[in-house]
Amino acid sequence: MIQKLKISFYLLSSKMNIKGEAPIYCRISIGNERQQYSTGMYLIHNQWNKIKQQAKGSSPTAETINLHLNSIKSKLLDIEALFMVEKKENYTLHDIYSKFTGANQESAVTLIQVFKKKIDSMEKLIGKSYSKGTLTKFKEVFAHTLDYLIEIHNIKDIAFTHLNNDFIQGFQEYLLVNKNHKPATINKIIQRVCQIVWIGVNYDGAKYPFRNYKPLKEVKQLIYLTEEEIKLLEDFQFAQERLERVRDYYMFSVYTGLAYNEAFELKEEHIIKGFDNQLWIKMIRLKTQREINIPLLPQALKIIQKYHQAGEQGYILPTISNQKMNSYLKEIAEIVGIKKKLTHHTARKTFASTILLYNNVPIEIVSKLLGHANISITQKSYAEVVNKNVSNHMLQLSKQLESKQEHKEPL
């Protein structure tokens, strides 16, 4: 029996990353059939020996790459040798590639398989354990994962046994370069993929494959309105009714801290009279499934009275999509003269910062009102505001001490 499989390795320069490294691809063929996929290894072009199809030199990096390529070649040849015995001349390139990727193993747990099961389960638990927004985000992550498998690895699924740190680092780079996502978005996407991987690991008892993975560094900017900007926005007289409505919806969250989904899911049943005989919002936060209790400030109550609709569904505020909301807020910022990127989420940030923390509400209470799972989330998110508050208090204390010192009678 004659070996039919041909194996070659090459650099795909068209997919060079920001470091100037190109992915090393493997191409296998039998006759006119061809299949190529990324090996997960990267190398600078002048360090690649095109004739020998391996990395140049004897550096640790070169040795690691060459060992990996030799391992791939040996595994492919072993698979062909097995088929030559079992199937004689009747095996195909698809047979070899499927065996190599583990796609033909019915018992093998695969990434896409587990992803689909997770999404199916989430769809059944909408309104109970998951929100529609969370489901949408997981579906988007699923689409990115499938795109990565197809575009970079030329496969539609992958067994958990083939997942490694190169896979997840490659995915990170793909999202950064090919999808042009920001580090914060990429970290969220990979965080959700890792949740799926943990499920798969629990299925077959394998080791978690991404232990050495490090998230990208994020430069987070806390955007919120100052007291002056709040007043400017509240006092502005809009010529268009739609902009006035969106301004009011935004201000409702400025004075309640409700996220977009919660603000537009608010119903009469969520407005209760509290122990202090005042009106409170009492509902379950969709993101954390934690109960939130928020006292209704006068400004928020006025907006409820202005827009309350007694429709069949009983929602307090008329519905508007988050996309339109943010689009109109951009328009509003330009008209009013606020030099910040306004989104509905900045209303929640403004509630925590300008309305609460700058008015000396303790951070423990701020955390409770925001519905955070624990206070460390609040401290991390609003460290900048807390530090400014501490600085202001210390300046006041310093002035008080100086004043006392000046009025102190000499002995």
Largest sheet: 3 strands, antiparallel
**Tally of DSSP β-strands:** 8
CATH homologous superfamily assignment of the largest domain: Intergrase catalytic core
- Structural class comes to mainly alpha
What CATH calls the topology of the largest domain is hpI Integrase, Chain A
Sketch the topology as an H/E string, one letter per element: EEEEEHHHHHHHHHEEEHHHHHH
- Write down the domain tally: 3
Largest sheet, order of strands side by side? 1-2-3
Write down the Rg.
29 Å
By CATH reckoning, the class of the largest domain would read Mainly Alpha
**Mean residue pLDDT:** 86
Tell me the β content. Answer: 5-15%
Number of helices: 15
* Distance between the ends: 110 Å
What's the layout of helices and strands?
Blueprint: E1 6-11, E2 21-30, E3 33-44, E4 48-49, E5 54-55, H1 60-86, H2 93-101, H3 111-124, H4 132-152, H5 165-177, H6 183-204, H7 227-235, H8 241-254, H9 260-265, E6 271-273, E7 279-284, E8 291-295, H10 298-307, H11 322-336, H12 344-356, H13 363-370, H14 375-381, H15 383-407
Helix pairs in contact: 1-2, 3-4, 3-6, 4-6, 5-6, 8-10, 8-11, 8-12, 13-14
InterPro entries: Arm-DNA-bind_5, DNA_brk_join_enz, Integrase-like_cat_sf, Integrase_catalytic, Integrase_recombinase_N, SAM-like_dom, Tyrosine_recombinase_XerCD
Keywords: DNA recombination, DNA-binding
Protein name: Site-specific integrase
